[in-house]
Design goal:
Elements (H helix, E strand, L loop, with lengths): L15 H19 L2 E5 L5 E4 L8 E5 L16 H55 L7 E3 L5 E3 L1 H31 L1
Antiparallel strand pairs: 1-2, 1-3, 4-5
Helix pairs in contact: 2-3
């Protein structure tokens, strides 16, 4: 029996792209570990780092570029469970300290916010008192100076000065409270 070429199956060819990528990756991984770096100093004192020693260099040193890996291992004869428990306890202690600092910071922020709110209320009250105190309908606020004309009395002017001073003091307290709040945040 003779086989025709149409019936003969050929083995499938592997994809050259995937094979090439794997080969490149293996080559790069191997060459990265085996690659040497040289520090060469030429006759003028210039330092040159390269993959090969520089010809004619005054001195050539091979530089160790192997990454240092530090593994935290328990000492011989020690209990690894105890070391892990000690790390957990330290982490828990640090977490608790952080939580307490956050709680204290939040309490300070709330106290500063309360002071700002109180200062705002005091300023509003002082401003209302000033507006009310500037009305001259109270007896003794005005003094006649002939005919239908009048002028404010000294008593009235003193009251308005006190009320204006109270508004200024309230503004100062509000500013200071706002500064404390900014410092806390």
């Amino acid at each position: 029996m003779q086989m025709t070429p149409a019936l003969i199956s050929t083995p499938r060819r592997r994809r050259p792209v995937a094979t090439g990528l794997i080969a490149c990756a293996l080559f790069a991984a191997g060459s990265a570990q085996a690659q040497a770096i040289f520090k060469s100093v030429d006759s003028t004192g210039r330092v040159i780092y390269s993959q090969e020693p520089v010809p004619g260099a005054v001195s050539v040193d091979k530089v160790d570029v192997t990454p240092k890996v530090i593994v935290d291992r328990p000492a011989a004869g020690s209990n690894p469970g105890a070391a892990a428990e000690a790390r957990r306890a330290e982490t828990a202690r640090q977490s608790e300290e952080f939580r307490l600092r956050q709680q204290a910071r939040e309490a300070q922020r709330q106290k500063a916010m309360d002071a700002v709110n109180a200062a705002e209320r005091d300023l509003e009250a002082a401003q209302k008192a000033l507006v009310a105190g500037q009305e001259t309908d109270q007896p003794g606020d005005r003094q006649g100076i002939g005919g239908v004309r009048s002028r404010p009395t000294e008593q009235y002017l003193e009251r308005v000065r006190r009320l204006e001073a109270a508004v200024e003091a309230a503004k100062k307290r509000l500013f200071e409270a706002q500064v404390r709040l900014r410092d806390v945040q």
